[in-house]
Amino acid sequence: MGARCLPPPEPDPALWGTDQMWILRYDNIMRHPGGRVKGCHCDIHRPRRPGAQAMEVDEEMDTFASKQKRVPTAGKNPKEKPGTSGAPATEDEDEFDFSSSKPKKVATAVKKQTKPLTSGMALKSSLARAGSLRATKIGEGDKYALHSGPAGEADEAWFLSAFEDVPDVLCGSHREFDLLTRKITEDLKSGAEFWEPKVQALKKLRSMIVHLNVYEDEIQAFIKNIVLQFLSNLKDLRSQVVRETCLTFAFICKEYKNKVEAHTCEIVMQQMMSNVMSSAKVISTASFIALKFMFTHVNHGRLIHTLVQTLLNSKSREVRTAACEFLQLILVTWPVHRLEQQIPSLQEGIKKGMAESSIEGRMAARKAFWAFRAHFPDQGEALLNSMDAICKKNVMAGEQPDAPPNVKTRQAAPTRPAMVR
Q1: pLDDT value at position 308?
Q2: Would you say residue 30 has pLDDT above 80?
Q3: Could you give the angle at the alpha carbon of 382 between the alpha carbons of 308 and 316, nearest 5°?
Q4: Which element (helix H / strand E) includes 197?
Q5: How far apart are the first and last CA of the chain?
Q6: CA distances for 346 relative to 266, 267, 304, 371, angstroms
Q7: Phi, psi (deg, nearest 5) at residue 400
Q8: What are the boundaries of each domain within the chain?
Q9: Is the CB of residue 28 less than 8 Å from the CB of residue 49?
């Protein structure tokens, strides 16, 4: 057993009250840490209380400790020390440690007996669950949701159906027209949190194109002035704003065709090509379909050069594949006189598409080659000879498709016979 330590001095009653005894207890513990564990049996961990109060508290603590020693434990001899077998307790044993926590009672869970549900009760519960669910319909909130894909992605049928689904606009004078265009411009310039006014402004713009035919020149000039707002909306975080912008631009290209300036198409096309590789299907599909409408109805030669540069410089596989498909679309739908000035760019784009990593891109490039060769046989043969052996084998392995209808091909000029002198 360890030796007893000297007790701390008696506290001054004038300085220490009953509500400050915890300070003395903490001070004693810090002076003698782990005393009982190390074998010391002194009462240094008990705070010294002043005067008669100390005697009363010490008597209460001794009485409580003696009662705890007399309480027998289940299956053990009360005179045995815990952890020993049959050894009698001595007076030098540890006193009761008042700092130890009391054992907690463990509450046992009692299972409640549940009565079996009768058929009537089961019917009521099922009706209650069914009534708590909110009834929803397919396409609720979106009139043309049935034409969209599983992730909200739109298709051409949705575009064609939503083109003229616009509100009516009242415009009886040039002053009202100016007020209307000013309001549309303000809504398109609003912040990202005001996305609903942007959508309504784009619908009003389509309504102007549908109903205000007398202001066609003014509308075209207005579209030219809001190109930057179109570009900003294509970068919006709201997919609904991006989809509505693509829808409106596709409708503009469909209605005005080559009247849409090439510079306007180039600015919008670059951002839409970037949106094609978006992880959001709504944005990627809407941008792809809008570009398809643009390349079908707007035939500016500058667009071919911009498209080929995108195919050559883009690091995105999705963008390059889309560029190959648009290149094929151009060679199938555009008139020949629009393609003549862009033969070098077309050859470069087709050759790049032949070595594309994606199967879809290579397939579209092969179809573009056969369409190019149908229009320009000599240039097509020269392009075929400039390819490597693998690309040439892949091109010649596939059958040549039929010439597209309503497309006039440029025949090679007949060679003149040599003059015999």
Answers
A1: 96
A2: no
A3: 25
A4: helix 195-211
A5: 139
A6: 17, 21, 7, 11
A7: -75, 125
A8: 152-298, 312-400
A9: no
CATH architecture of 152-298: Alpha Horseshoe (1.25)
| CATH superfamily of the domain spanning 312-400 | Leucine-rich Repeat Variant (1.25.10.10)
SS3 246: helix
> Comparing 152-298 with 312-400, is the CATH topology the same?
yes
8-state DSSP, 226: T
CB contact at 8 A, 242 and 234: yes
Structure letter (DSSP) for residue 83: T
β-pair partners for 88:
80
Tokens of 308: 């080929």
Q: What angle do CA 121, 124, 126 make, to 5 degrees?
A: 110
Beta strands per DSSP E along 221-349: none
Model pLDDT, residue 129: 38
Encode pLDDT of 117-153 as tens digits.
Answer: 444 444 344 334 333 333 323 233 343 333 344 445 5
Query: Vertex 64, ends 58 and 69: CA angle to 5°?
Result: 125
Please say whether the beta carbons of 234 and 272 come within 8 A.
Answer: yes
Block residue for tokens 């298709």: 155
Sequence-separated contacts (24+) of 304-310 with Cβ below 8 Å = 304/330, 304/339, 304/342, 304/345, 304/346, 304/349, 305/342, 305/345, 306/266, 306/269, 306/270, 307/269, 307/349, 308/345, 308/346, 308/348, 308/349, 308/352, 310/270, 310/273
Q: What one-letter code names the amino acid at 142?
A: D
pLDDT of 94 > 70? The answer is no
pTM: 0.60
Backbone angles phi, psi at 88, to 5 degrees: -70, 150
Would the pLDDT of 417 be above 70?
no
Q: What is the pLDDT of residues 380-415, one digit of tens each?
A: 999 999 988 888 888 887 655 444 444 443 343 333
Q: Can you tell me which residue has the tokens 């005697």? A: 55
Q: In this structure, what token pair is assigned to residue 328?
A: 């094929």
